[in-house]
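Thread amino acids onto this structure.
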Protein backbone atom coordinates (compact mmCIF):
# COMPACT_ATOMS: atom_id res chain seq x y z
CA UNK A 1 0.00 0.00 0.00
CA UNK A 2 1.35 3.42 -0.98
CA UNK A 3 1.21 6.55 1.13
CA UNK A 4 2.07 10.16 0.35
CA UNK A 5 4.75 12.03 2.34
CA UNK A 6 6.27 15.50 2.33
CA UNK A 7 8.58 17.75 4.37
CA UNK A 8 7.52 21.21 5.48
CA UNK A 9 7.79 24.12 7.88
CA UNK A 10 4.59 25.10 9.65
CA UNK A 11 4.02 28.52 11.19
CA UNK A 12 2.46 28.85 14.66
CA UNK A 13 -1.27 28.11 14.93
CA UNK A 14 -2.27 31.80 15.15
CA UNK A 15 -0.67 32.48 11.74
CA UNK A 16 -2.36 29.36 10.30
CA UNK A 17 -5.67 30.85 11.52
CA UNK A 18 -4.90 34.29 10.01
CA UNK A 19 -4.13 32.72 6.63
CA UNK A 20 -7.26 30.58 6.84
CA UNK A 21 -9.28 33.83 6.59
CA UNK A 22 -7.80 34.44 3.11
CA UNK A 23 -8.50 30.81 2.12
CA UNK A 24 -12.11 31.16 3.29
CA UNK A 25 -12.45 34.33 1.20
CA UNK A 26 -11.23 32.40 -1.86
CA UNK A 27 -13.63 29.53 -1.10
CA UNK A 28 -16.65 31.86 -0.70
CA UNK A 29 -15.94 34.49 -3.37
CA UNK A 30 -13.80 32.63 -5.94
CA UNK A 31 -15.12 29.02 -5.80
CA UNK A 32 -11.80 27.72 -4.46
CA UNK A 33 -12.61 25.34 -1.61
CA UNK A 34 -9.69 22.91 -2.18
CA UNK A 35 -7.22 25.29 -0.54
CA UNK A 36 -9.11 24.92 2.76
CA UNK A 37 -8.03 21.28 2.99
CA UNK A 38 -4.40 22.15 3.82
CA UNK A 39 -3.06 24.28 6.66
CA UNK A 40 -0.60 27.05 5.78
CA UNK A 41 2.96 25.74 5.42
CA UNK A 42 6.15 26.09 3.40
CA UNK A 43 7.11 22.97 1.47
CA UNK A 44 10.76 21.93 1.73
CA UNK A 45 10.25 18.70 -0.24
CA UNK A 46 7.06 18.18 -2.28
CA UNK A 47 4.66 15.26 -1.79
CA UNK A 48 5.97 11.88 -2.92
CA UNK A 49 4.53 8.41 -2.85
CA UNK A 50 6.17 5.35 -1.21
CA UNK A 51 5.12 1.91 -0.06
CA UNK A 52 4.23 2.10 3.64
CA UNK A 53 6.68 -0.80 4.24
CA UNK A 54 9.47 1.63 3.25
CA UNK A 55 8.45 4.24 5.82
CA UNK A 56 11.41 3.32 8.06
CA UNK A 57 13.77 4.35 5.24
CA UNK A 58 12.00 7.70 4.98
CA UNK A 59 12.37 8.21 8.75
CA UNK A 60 16.08 7.30 8.61
CA UNK A 61 16.72 9.76 5.77
CA UNK A 62 14.68 12.44 7.57
CA UNK A 63 16.70 11.99 10.78
CA UNK A 64 19.96 12.33 8.79
CA UNK A 65 19.07 15.86 7.63
CA UNK A 66 21.58 18.24 9.17
CA UNK A 67 19.52 20.68 11.22
CA UNK A 68 22.52 22.23 12.98
CA UNK A 69 21.17 25.69 12.15
CA UNK A 70 20.17 28.27 14.72
CA UNK A 71 16.39 28.83 14.71
CA UNK A 72 15.69 31.85 12.52
CA UNK A 73 13.00 34.43 11.90
CA UNK A 74 11.05 34.15 8.67
CA UNK A 75 9.16 37.20 7.48
CA UNK A 76 6.10 36.80 5.27
CA UNK A 77 5.34 39.87 3.19
CA UNK A 78 2.41 40.24 0.82
CA UNK A 79 0.94 38.07 -1.88
CA UNK A 80 2.44 36.52 -4.97
CA UNK A 81 1.19 34.15 -7.64
CA UNK A 82 2.12 31.55 -10.22
CA UNK A 83 0.00 32.75 -13.18
CA UNK A 84 -0.24 29.39 -14.92
CA UNK A 85 -3.56 29.28 -16.86
CA UNK A 86 -3.93 25.51 -16.27
CA UNK A 87 -3.09 25.61 -12.56
CA UNK A 88 -2.89 29.14 -11.12
CA UNK A 89 -1.67 29.56 -7.54
CA UNK A 90 -2.13 32.46 -5.15
CA UNK A 91 0.23 32.57 -2.15
CA UNK A 92 1.80 34.58 0.64
CA UNK A 93 5.48 35.13 -0.01
CA UNK A 94 8.39 35.09 2.41
CA UNK A 95 11.10 37.71 2.18
CA UNK A 96 14.39 36.44 0.80
CA UNK A 97 16.00 34.35 3.57
CA UNK A 98 19.45 32.78 3.45
CA UNK A 99 18.77 30.35 6.32
CA UNK A 100 15.59 29.07 4.63
CA UNK A 101 17.51 28.41 1.41
CA UNK A 102 20.27 26.68 3.42
CA UNK A 103 17.68 24.49 5.17
CA UNK A 104 16.19 23.52 1.80
CA UNK A 105 19.66 22.51 0.52
CA UNK A 106 20.20 20.35 3.62
CA UNK A 107 16.87 18.59 3.08
CA UNK A 108 17.80 18.10 -0.59
CA UNK A 109 20.97 16.21 0.44
CA UNK A 110 18.83 13.26 1.59
CA UNK A 111 15.64 13.87 -0.40
CA UNK A 112 16.88 14.34 -3.93
CA UNK A 113 14.86 11.86 -5.97
CA UNK A 114 12.44 14.45 -7.36
CA UNK A 115 13.41 17.44 -9.47
CA UNK A 116 11.71 20.62 -8.41
CA UNK A 117 12.65 24.25 -8.06
CA UNK A 118 12.43 25.85 -4.64
CA UNK A 119 10.04 28.80 -4.58
CA UNK A 120 9.13 29.10 -0.90
CA UNK A 121 5.55 30.24 -0.35
CA UNK A 122 2.37 29.60 1.66
CA UNK A 123 -0.42 28.66 -0.71
CA UNK A 124 -3.74 30.46 -0.31
CA UNK A 125 -5.52 29.43 -3.53
CA UNK A 126 -4.88 26.55 -5.99
CA UNK A 127 -6.24 23.31 -7.49
CA UNK A 128 -9.91 24.14 -8.18
CA UNK A 129 -9.15 27.84 -8.73
CA UNK A 130 -10.16 28.59 -12.34
CA UNK A 131 -8.12 30.98 -14.47
CA UNK A 132 -11.04 33.48 -14.52
CA UNK A 133 -11.42 33.37 -10.73
CA UNK A 134 -7.65 33.55 -10.28
CA UNK A 135 -7.57 36.77 -12.35
CA UNK A 136 -10.37 38.30 -10.22
CA UNK A 137 -8.76 37.18 -6.95
CA UNK A 138 -5.30 38.41 -8.05
CA UNK A 139 -6.78 41.82 -8.81
CA UNK A 140 -7.80 42.02 -5.15
CA UNK A 141 -4.80 40.31 -3.53
CA UNK A 142 -1.99 41.79 -5.63
CA UNK A 143 -2.19 44.97 -3.54
CA UNK A 144 -3.50 43.44 -0.27
CA UNK A 145 -1.06 43.96 2.58
CA UNK A 146 -0.26 41.07 4.85
CA UNK A 147 2.87 40.93 6.95
CA UNK A 148 3.79 38.53 9.70
CA UNK A 149 6.87 36.76 11.00
CA UNK A 150 7.63 33.67 12.99
CA UNK A 151 10.57 31.66 14.26
CA UNK A 152 11.45 28.57 12.26
CA UNK A 153 12.72 26.12 14.85
CA UNK A 154 11.83 22.71 13.37
CA UNK A 155 10.96 20.84 10.20
CA UNK A 156 8.19 18.24 9.93
CA UNK A 157 7.78 15.00 8.03
CA UNK A 158 4.11 14.45 7.18
CA UNK A 159 2.13 11.48 5.89
CA UNK A 160 -1.25 11.64 4.17
CA UNK A 161 -3.81 9.59 6.12
CA UNK A 162 -6.95 11.21 4.71
CA UNK A 163 -5.29 14.47 5.77
CA UNK A 164 -1.66 15.47 6.34
CA UNK A 165 -0.42 14.24 9.71
CA UNK A 166 3.03 15.01 11.19
CA UNK A 167 4.86 11.73 11.83
CA UNK A 168 8.30 13.11 12.75
CA UNK A 169 9.97 16.40 13.52
CA UNK A 170 13.56 17.65 13.73
CA UNK A 171 14.43 20.69 15.77
CA UNK A 172 16.87 23.29 14.48
CA UNK A 173 19.70 23.82 16.92
CA UNK A 174 23.12 25.32 16.61
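Threaded sequence (174 positions):
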Amino acid sequence: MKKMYFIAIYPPQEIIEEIKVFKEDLAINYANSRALKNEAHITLFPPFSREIELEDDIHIAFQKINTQIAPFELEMDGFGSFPNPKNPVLYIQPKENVQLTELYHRVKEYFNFAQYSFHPHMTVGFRDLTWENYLKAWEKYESTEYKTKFIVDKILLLRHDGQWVPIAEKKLEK
